[in-house]
Design brief:
Blueprint (H helix, E strand, L loop, with lengths): L5 E8 L5 H11 L17 H6 L7 E8 L2 E8 L8 H9 L3 E7 L6 H12 L3 E7 L8 H12 L7 E2 L8 H11 L12 E10 L3 E10 L7 E4 L5 E3 L2 E5 L3 E3 L8 E5 L13 E4 L18 E7 L5 H14 L4 E7 L3 E8 L2 H14 L4 E3 L6 E5 L4 E4 L10 E16 L3 H10 L3 E8 L3 E9 H4 L3 H8 L5 E11 L2 E8 L2 E2 L5 E4 H18 L7 E7 L2 E8 L15 H16 L1 E4 L2 E4 H9 L2
Parallel strand pairs: 1-3, 1-4, 4-5, 5-6
Antiparallel strand pairs: 2-3, 7-8, 7-14, 8-13, 9-10, 9-14, 11-12, 11-13, 15-17, 15-18, 16-17, 19-20, 19-21, 21-23, 21-24, 22-23, 25-26, 25-27, 25-28, 28-29, 30-31
Bound molecules: guanosine-5'-triphosphate.
Membrane topology: Peripheral membrane protein
Family: Belongs to the TRAFAC class translation factor GTPase superfamily. Classic translation factor GTPase family. LepA subfamily.
Catalytic activity: GTP + H2O = GDP + phosphate + H(+)
Length: 596
């Protein structure tokens, strides 16, 4: 296709503002999906995505659209909508010349959308502002058109009004995509360069790599090279999705399509990497490629220890389709054998644990999420700690923690309560701006460690669900952090160690000792439960010794009752863990960790 007749765009929207519905309607109106084949939410493939209504993996669809007698090829590139996937979003945006900014006409813009809009503006994309769901009685398009216009410039009248549900305004939107978004430009005679904006594992076909052609061309049967690793692969198939994968004779400048090489692991085909040809390789890779780093770590343990091999195989399998998943084996006194797993963020953690439980039928316990601390010890060594129980002992010169820049959008009435929350989480206010008349954007820097722990839940409950949140990494910063250990009769319970700010150490110690006191059954002897920083005890509770044996209260009378009690005890025994001399049912650890 002549690049003059190509338009590459994506849709930037908040979860639930109707991106999938609008995309479906576009597929239908352009005729690439017949009404009969129309499956709801065609683009969302995974079950979890559909159930939770979130889009994790992006893909691309080609649709024809005619304007003034000319036919154009529109490539719609789907972008993930959540905060953990900023890097993937940035690569999807880099594959486009324009973006539809889609906002629910009853809700207005949200923090994540704003963050992605800024990313799109940084990438010089042409923005088409659109209000969706105008069929809703609660829609207030006049108000939000003003908000959008003041945000990106332009007149409120230029903000399109559509309904993905009824199809109203969608044809006009497609016309505008053709009219406003610039066509791609590139050098057809230069060495081939194509950017990978997505890489999806398919059980039958192996890895499917989605690319946007920048220069040159790719043809079937060519040998391609990945510029980051120099690895060479044979191209088995090349094509476009429309929306089913359709092989083509090749891809030229500006086109969007997929490649299949028989590679079995998405790590060999990384998002952001540049594809070139082995015969005439390009010298410079396209800018913007990085290896996404895990930000949040958690120990994952099977509740039934014999499930460990299943967990290992499950992680190996998930890794094929998730290049950002990292793990290594770990053992814990309290929880047995498991893995320390690195995630891009909290949602990523949630998705992975949910997939493990659902697709592999595993019962898992996850330790409290931790971030990456850098600890400088006396001998000037810097140790990276992602598991609090591995915090170095001895004299520490400095501890630093990852920081994030946080953006919060909320109605102005909640500003006070949000500021209070952010301050209690060691946030430093960077700025505050009004968006329209009654909504405010607050910007903070905050330790990531303060966010991974129920920050979002608190934010939502303090604002009746009206606040939305976005964050991006912002380097490491030194802080007065200490490790708090929890001891049972003097023995450390590794899964409960936590790295916290010195001012919060006492509160953590009290919380955990009180929680464990309620959960640990009485033993033959008194069991002290302590919280300590190094050798210094900061909180203490104890479980008193058992006075009589369990059978005493049966008065020796009812024999069946006695037997039942003994059997129950035996059953309980199997799941007991020994911490020093203390027997603790595994359920107690699990309950203490999950805070129930
Ligand atoms: P993610 O896939 O989670 O990003 O969500 P989404 O933005 O794709 O939203 P989706 O299309 O799933 O729509 C969210 C909800 O809004 C669904 O219940 C839709 O039926 C509804 N919805 C979408 N578009 C419209 C619209 O134009 N009018 C009305 N009334 N409802 C709509």
């Amino acid at each position: 296709t002549d690049p003059a007749f190509i338009r590459n765009f994506c849709i930037i929207a908040h979860i639930d503002h109707g991106k999938s519905t609008l995309a479906d309607r576009m597929l239908q109106i352009t005729g690439v999906v017949s009404d009969r084949d129309m499956r709801a939410q065609y683009l969302d493939r995974m079950d979890i995505e559909r159930e939770r209504g979130i889009t994790i993996k992006s893909q691309a669809v080609r649709m024809p659209w005619s304007l003034n007698g000319e036919t154009f090829a529109l490539n719609m590139i789907d972008t993930p909508g959540h905060v953990d996937f900023t890097y993937e979003v940035s690569r999807s945006l880099a594959a486009c010349e324009g973006a539809i900014l889609l906002v629910d006409a009853a809700q207005g813009i949200e923090a994540q959308t704003l963050a992605n809009l800024y990313l799109a503006l940084e990438n010089d994309l042409e923005i088409i502002p659109v209000l969706n769901k105008i069929d809703l009685p609660a829609a207030d398009p006049d108000k939000y058109a003003k908000e959008l216009a003041s945000l990106i410039g332009g007149k409120p009248e230029d903000v399109l009004r559509v309904s993905g549900k009824t199809g109203m305004g969608v044809e006009e939107l497609l016309d505008r995509v053709v009219g406003r978004i610039p066509n791609p430009v590139g050098d057809p005679d230069a060495p081939t360069r194509a950017m990978i904006f997505d890489s999806v594992y398919d059980t039958y076909r192996g890895v499917v790599t989605y690319v946007r052609m920048i220069d040159g061309q790719l043809s079937p049967r060519e040998r391609i090279q990945m510029m980051s690793t120099r690895a060479v692969h044979d191209l088995l198939e090349i094509g476009v999705s429309s929306p089913e994968p359709t092989p083509t004779k090749g891809l030229g400048v500006g086109e969007v399509g997929y490649l299949i090489t028989g590679v079995k692991d998405v790590r060999q085909s990384k998002v952001g990497d540049t594809v070139t040809t082995a015969v005439k390789p390009a010298t410079d890779a396209l800018p913007g490629y990085t290896d996404p780093k895990p930000m949040v770590f958690s120990g994952l343990y099977p509740i039934d220890g014999s499930d460990y091999p299943i967990l290992r195989d499950a992680l190996d399998k998930l890794k094929l389709s998730d290049a950002s998943l990292n793990y290594e084996p770990e053992t814990s006194v309290a929880l047995g054998f498991g893995f320390r797993v690195g995630f891009l963020g909290l949602l990523h953690l949630e998705i992975v644990t949910e997939r493990l439980q659902r697709e592999f039928d595993l019962d898992l316990i996850a330790t409290a999420p931790s971030v990456t601390y850098e600890v400088k010890t006396e001998d000037k060594q810097v140790v990276t700690v992602t598991n609090p129980s591995e915090f170095p002992s001895g004299k520490i010169l400095e501890v630093s923690e990852p920081m994030v820049k946080v953006g919060i959008l909320a109605p102005k009435d909640y500003v006070g309560t949000i500021m209070e929350l952010c301050q209690s989480r060691r946030g430093a206010l960077l700025g505050m701006e009004y968006l329209g008349e009654d909504r405010v954007e607050l910007r903070y820097t905050m330790p990531l460690g303060e966010i991974v722990f129920d920050f979002f839940d608190h934010l939502k409950s303090r604002t009746q669900g009206y606040a939305s949140l976005d964050y991006e990494p912002s380097g490491q910063q030194a802080a007065d952090l200490v490790k708090v250990d929890i001891l049972l009769q003097g023995d450390q319970v590794d899964a409960f160690s936590a790295i916290v700010h010195r001012e919060k150490a006492y509160a953590y110690g009290v919380l955990m000792t009180e929680r464990l006191k309620k959960l640990i059954p009485r033993q033959q002897f008194e069991v002290p439960i302590q919280a300590a920083i190094g050798a210094r005890i900061i909180a203490r509770e104890s479980v008193r010794a058992m006075r009589k044996d369990v059978l005493a209260k049966c008065y020796g009378g009812d024999i069946t009752r006695k037997r039942k009690l003994l059997e129950k005890q035996k059953e309980g025994k199997k799941r007991m863990k020994m911490v020093g001399k203390v027997e603790v049912p595994q359920e107690a650890f699990i309950a203490a960790l999950s805070g129930d």
